[in-house]
Design brief:
Length: 300
């Protein structure tokens, strides 16, 4: 990782982390400005230009925008992407070759696909900045009592965060992005990639002693049930990351695996505990986000 990329990622993390200190009014203003910018970019392509025809994109609230389904996007893929160099057939051919795992499509895009468990798989196209934002969000939320300032940045360079990512290696949407983490985050993180099929997974985790674990909910659930075998110090495990799967399980290797409702009640009883690792839910795209919103008690 170059010095220039280190500085770039530090700036992204700092800018994102500082949003937490903004007032609700400032956050709402930033959200609206970004939405308008996104909509102006979207209608530069035929698919969204037709879909949003007749709408006042400078005023319409997000809740009144017409929704788009996966099948629509895939059927109109070439007319929906904003970079005309990206064609569906080329992306599919690229992902058909396993030697392209960890390579940038066209030298600038991370490409992946959803599992298709709901029927139609969806191709995802993410540029470097999109991945930087995701990793920066993980970084800033991993230290809920810290500040993404110069001092913390230097401390992370001197003592990098150890991240264990447990996922299948391939073009799956839940795991392929993390292949690029060392390149984009570099000296701030020491990432270890593990597979959920490794028979010695727990032993490998014990050897890494990660500050952060990112895995499928089913794997975190299993790890919680194996807590007697884990040798992860409470003071070092700061953060859990969960990919989107279609059931609501909160995994806590200290307290065990519980349903969202039970964990919500437990959270109320243990608000003063400072050693509980935070949970960060990685859902760049999930077809059941409304169900997750209810499970997580997130206000719309």
């Amino acid at each position: 990782m170059s010095l220039a990329q280190t500085i770039r990622f530090a700036k992204v993390s700092r800018r994102l982390g500082r949003m937490a200190g903004k007032s609700p009014r400032e956050i709402e203003q930033a959200r609206d400005e970004r939405l308008r910018r996104l909509l102006r970019q979207a209608v530069t392509v035929p698919f969204y230009r037709e879909k949003y025809k007749g709408l006042d994109l400078d005023q319409i609230p997000l809740s009144r925008l017409p929704t788009t389904k996966k099948q629509e996007l895939m059927e109109n893929f070439d007319a929906a992407v904003t970079d005309p160099a990206v064609r569906r057939a080329d992306v599919e051919n690229f992902m058909a070759d396993p030697s392209n795992i960890g390579q940038w499509f066209l030298g600038r895009y991370c490409v992946s696909h959803t599992s298709g468990s709901q029927g139609q798989p969806l191709i995802l196209i993410q540029d470097r900045y999109c991945l930087e934002l995701m990793f920066a969000a993980t970084t800033t939320r991993a230290y809920s009592r810290g500040k993404p300032d110069l001092l913390q940045g230097l401390s992370r360079i001197l003592r990098p965060t150890r991240v264990a990512v447990v996922s299948m290696i391939g073009f799956s949407a839940s795991g392929h992005a993390f292949t690029f983490m060392p390149e984009l985050v570099g000296g701030f993180v020491r990432m270890t990639r593990l597979s959920p099929t490794q028979p010695d997974l727990i032993e490998r985790l014990n050897a890494v002693r990660p500050h952060v674990i990112v895995a499928y909910p089913s794997i975190l659930d299993w790890l919680a049930a194996q807590s007697h075998r884990l040798r992860l110090a409470r003071s070092s495990l700061r953060h859990l990351g969960s990919f989107g799967e279609q059931f609501g399980i909160f995994i806590d290797p200290i307290y065990g695996a519980k349903s969202w409702m039970i964990m919500e009640e437990r959270e109320r009883r243990h608000l003063e505990r400072k050693d509980r690792p935070a949970l960060f839910w990685h859902c760049g795209y999930t077809p059941n986000w409304q169900d997750y919103r209810v499970d997580l008690r997130i206000k719309s």
